[in-house]
Amino acid sequence: MRTTLLASACVIAAGIAAASAEQSRTSIGVLTCTSGDSVAEGGAAESRMTCGFKPTGSGAEERYSGTLRMDGQAASAPSGKRVWVWAVIGPAKVPGGVLAQRYVAAARPTTGPAAAALVGESNDAITLQAETADGAVGTATQIELKLLTTPA
Questions:
Q1: Of 116, 119, 145, nearest in space to 132 by CA
Q2: Distance (Å, whole) CA 53 – CA 63
Q3: 6 — pLDDT class (breaks 50, 70, 90)
Q4: What is the pLDDT of residues 115-139, one digit of tens each?
């Protein structure tokens, strides 16, 4: 009986530790992108962009290409080259190339820091928190990134 109780307690403790580790999210780096002129389409605008992800610490920079979508007022902002900077939030340990996915604006507050966050569709543990949008009106509502270089 004691062995069963001890084993059960160990399993529960391990589950709690694993859940706590999964929820432990931190800044894992900075994603900087440059977008060109956007193409407007039915109240939305889409731009192609090139990006660099610099992990926190000593990791190698990763290069990505992608698209950025803005809706509403942001879609009617002046055209031209823009620089976008996102803080990348996620688990402390992530594999190289982890940013290659689509990010979407999730249900969130309309004001405050969470208002400019994009959440990964295939890996929702990764969030992009807008730091700057180089004078753009509004925020991006969706981006999709593809890895260009394989991390070393």
A1: 116
A2: 6
A3: very low
A4: 568 999 999 999 999 887 555 555 6
Q: Do 56 and 77 meet the contact criterion of CB atoms below 8 Å apart?
A: no
Distance CA 10, CA 68 (A): 46
Q: Which residues, 6 or more positions from 8, have their beta carbon under 8 angstroms from its beta carbon?
A: none
Determine how β-strand 39-41 pairs with β-strand 102-104. unpaired
Question: Residue 2 CB: number of other CB atoms within 10 A?
Answer: 6
Q: What is the DSSP string of 61-106?
A: PEEEEEEEEEEGGGGGSPPS-EEEEEEEEEES---TTTT-SEEEPP
Half-sphere exposure of 139 (CA within 13 A, CB side): 22
Structure tokens at 41: 């389409």
pLDDT given for residue 11 in this prediction: 40
- Full-model pTM: 0.73
pLDDT exceeds 60 at position 86 = yes
